[in-house]
Amino acid sequence: MSAHAYFAGDWLALREPLDHASRDASLTTRAARALDAGPVAEKTIVDLGCGSGSNLRYLAPRLPGPQRWHLLDHDRTLLDAASADNCRDRDGRRPTIETHETNLADTAWHTLLDDADLVTASALFDLVTADWVGSLADACAQRRLPALFVLSVDGAIDLQPSDPEDPRVLARLQAHQARDKSFGAALGTDAPRVIRLAFSRAGYTVHAADAVWVIDDAAQTAVATALVTGWRDAAIEQSPSEGDRISQWAERRCRQLRAGELRIAVGHQDLFAMPGTR
After folding, report:
1. How far apart are CA 50 and CA 100, in angstroms?
2. Tell me, what DSSP letter sits at residue 231?
3. CA-CA-CA-CA torsion sign (154, 158, 164, 166)
4. What is the Cα–Cα distance from 153 to 148, expressed in whole angstroms?
5. 3-class secondary-structure state, position 270
């Protein structure tokens, strides 16, 4: 996706069903067990880069309550949408929701981890830097916080049937994913590896699982078209001289989508990190 599209509310709404369907349930179960084992009644969960609240809507019904959520994002409009959600926790209670309009590139937000029982994020880590992940791992380790980080792109993209231009376009896309997304040189598809390494170094046991978007149904045409269009825009931004060639590729792919002739699989990784015993 192009840089601006990562944060657009309409794109977040389109991708939410895919996100929820592809997430690995076993890692959520691990997070729920970690919260169940905690000493406090109210569970405080910090959601980094919460967007419009997709992670809240997925996790709240699967985690024990009562819950208090700290939702962090730079976009007040998305925060307002997230805070208005009427979700319930596993026991049927509405969570307490607090929103924080903040720049995650500024480590001042780390103070919100002081009383947390779980830190989580969805589709965030491809945008940040290795230093940022290392700082987060250290902050979590100091507080012995379990962490659930989901839907980090891993670079695996499969388009069937294939097109001769796929390698060219996807290479430009991957290069674009490593550009600065306001934190510095972004991790892009290296995010899962960097998270595992940083939290392992901080003394965590890290569990990983595949979370693959599969788009192969006519009902998914809107999200698939937005995805291909976003890939096109990012690839052209990365290599403007190839704009016509990339646009023609996107036109072919969108025609196939409308005809129900294209299957897309996009790889992501989910990770749950648990601090080691002392």
Report:
1. 10
2. H
3. negative
4. 15
5. strand
User: pTM to 2 decimals?
Assistant: 0.92
- Give the pLDDT confidence score for residue 273 in this predicted structure: 98
Cα–Cα dist 48/32, whole Å? 18
Strand bridging mode 147-160 / 213-215: unpaired
Euclidean distance between CA atoms 129 and 123, whole angstroms: 14
Q: Are 51 and 89 in contact (CB under 8 A)?
A: no
Asked if 133 contacts 206 with a C-beta cutoff of 8 angstroms, the reply is no
Please tell me the distance from the alpha carbon of residue 190 to that of residue 37, in angstroms, as a whole number: 32
> What are the backbone dihedrals phi and psi of residue 218, each rounded to the nearest 5 degrees, phi first?
-60, -30
Q: How many CB atoms lie within 10 A of CB 274?
A: 19
* β-sheet bridge partners, residue 76: none
pLDDT interval class at 122 (50, 70, 90): very high
